[in-house]
From TrEMBL:
Residues 79-109 are annotated as: Disordered. Residues 96-109 have a biased composition (Basic and acidic residues). The lineage of its organism: Eukaryota, Viridiplantae, Streptophyta, Embryophyta, Tracheophyta. This is Uncharacterized protein.
Amino acid sequence: MEEQMGGSEDRWKGSLENITEMASNLDSLQKLLLKKAVFVEEDTFSRASLVSEQARTIKVLEQRVQTLERELDAAITAAAHARSEKRQAESSQKAAESRAHEVTKELENTTKVFKLHMEELRGMQEQISKRDNEIKLLEAIIQTLGGKERLRKTGVNE
């Protein structure tokens, strides 16, 4: 691709040099005609007029070529900038995806830990409930035994 651009660029430069040389020749011919006021035959005059018109056309085309070259340079620069922005956006997206993956994994781990704690709390709650029932049973036994003791003590005193 670069070889094609280089060859194309060389041809443009050569063409521009030829055009510049033709313009210089025309200027010289025009100055000569003005100074000497030479009358030339119709054929020579028409050729000179044609060359003069071609020189003007060439100048316009040169300007157009320069404008197109500037536009091409601007387009190349814009494309490079767009590629750079695209790479940066892709990099940002990958970083965001990676962070989202990390957060998801962290949430999953937290959920697992929470489930384990909940199971542990349920087990402790069951133990507490079991012991509470045992305490109530023991209190009932104590009250029952305590009631019989009172009855015995009151019966002995009577």
